[in-house]
Amino acid sequence: MAPRAGTPNIVLTGCLDELGWSPKALARKLNRVFGAGTVAESAPYHWRDAGSLPRSPLPMMAAYVLSQELGRPLTAAELWQGRVGNSSAFVPADTDLARPWTLQGMEAIVEDWVMGGIVDRRRYLAISGVGLLAIVAQYLDGTAGRGQHAARLTPPLGADPLVDHVEQHLPMLQLLDDEHGGARHLPYVGAQFRAVGLLIREGGHSPAATSRLIRALAEIGQLAGWMAFDAADHGLAQRYFATALRAAHQVNDLPLSAHILGDLSFQAASRGHPADAVALGEAARRASDAAPPAVRASVLSRLAYAYATAGRDNDFAHTRGLARELVTDRASGQEEPRWMYFLTDNHLDCQAGYGLIQMGTAQRAAGQSKKSRRFLAQGTELLRSGAYGTPRGDPSQRRAMFEGAWLALGHSAHGDLEAACDVGRIAANRLDVVRSPRSAALLHQLAGDLRRRQRNPHVRSFLPTLENALAQHAPSTSPGR
Questions:
Q1: Contact 268, 276 (CB under 8 A)
Q2: pLDDT of 281-304, one tens digit each?
Q3: What pTM was estimated for this model as a whole?
C-alpha cells in the first residue's frame, strides 16, 4: 500500500542514511549527472520529509543516481513505494543487449539503432559493476567464440564503390572529434553509424563487402562512443562501445576489440569506478596480446590510468613503463591500424601525467603530503611537454583543452596558483571552439579549487573570467545520438 501524502518517504530516508547524504547532496548529484538546474537543492527535503512526489522524470532520475551510488538496483517504483513506474524515456545502457554473440545477435542490436533513428528520445543511463561487465562478459570469458566473417580482406580497388566511399570517410570523421570535441558533431557521426547499419540490414552484398561494412560499423561505433564519452553522455557511449565491440568481434578484429575495451576502461576510470576500470583494462590487455605494439601501448596506457584511479601506484608505474617500451618498438615494421594515428610518445607521457595528478590529489586528501607532492610534480612536468599551449588554429584543440585543464589542476593542487591561472586561462579560451563537457568538467573542478583561494591576487583576477566562460558555453541540451 502506498504511503499517504505528507508522511516521510522511509525508502528514500534509508538510502540517504546508508550513503551518509543530506537531501541537498542528492540534489547536487542529480544536477551533476543530468545538468545544472535539473532540481532545486531544497526539493529533496520535501521528497524525504513530506513524501512529496517529484515531477516526471525526476523519480526515475533519483532512482538511477541512488542505484549507482548504492551499487545495487533500485527501481523508481521501489523508491517511491508504488506511486510511480519507470519512465520509458530513461533506460539503462544495457537494455536489449543481452543477445548471443553471433552475426544474428549483432544484427538485432544494429536494428534497434537503425529503427530508432533521429526520432529516438530515449536517454541511456550509464551502468557500472556487474551490469557493465555483463555486456562484455561472453567476450571476456571466451564463450563468444569466433566471429562469422574472416579477418581483414584486401579487395581490388573499385570492387565496391559504395564501401570504398564509406571507408574513405572514416579518417575525416575522426578529425572532427580532434578539432571540435565530441559534443559538436556527435549527431552527425551517429547518423553515419546508422547509415552503415542500414546498409548491413538491407543485405545483398558480397561476403567481402559485408565484412568491410561490419568493420566500418565497428570503427564508427568506437568513434561515436568516444565522442559520446567526451560529451559526458556516458550511457550512450557505453551503448555505442558495446555495439562496436560486437561488430569488431564478428570480423575477428582483435586489435579494435582491445581498443574498445580500453576505451570502456578509461571511461569507467573517468567516472570514478576504478574496480570496473581495472577489470576492463586487464581484459583489454589480454585481448591485445597479438596486436601491433602501438595498440598494446595504447591499451596499457588506459590500464595504467585505471590503476592510478584505484590508487595502485606500483602497478601504474610498471604498466606505464611497459607502454613506453612498446612505443619504442614501433619501428619494427609491423603494420598498424589506421585509427592508431594519434599515439605518440608525448601522448603516452601526457596520459601518465594526468594519472599522476589523479594519484597526487588522492594522496593529498589522505594526508600523504610527501607522496602527493612527488606525484603532482611529476605529473605537471609531463603535461608541460604536451599540447596545452597548441595554437588555436591547430587541429588538436580538444586534446589541448583537456590536457590544459589537467595541468592547471595539477598546478593548483601543488600550490602554484599563478601557473594554475595562466594555464587555466589558455584552456578556458578554447571553450568557444571545443565542445567537450568532459574537459569542461575539469575546468569546473579547477573553479571549485580556486574559489577557496580567492585571497590570492592571481585567483581574484582569473576566477571571474573562468566562471563567466563556463557559464557562457555551458551546454543547453544533450548532443543526442
A1: yes
A2: 999 999 999 899 999 999 999 999
A3: 0.88
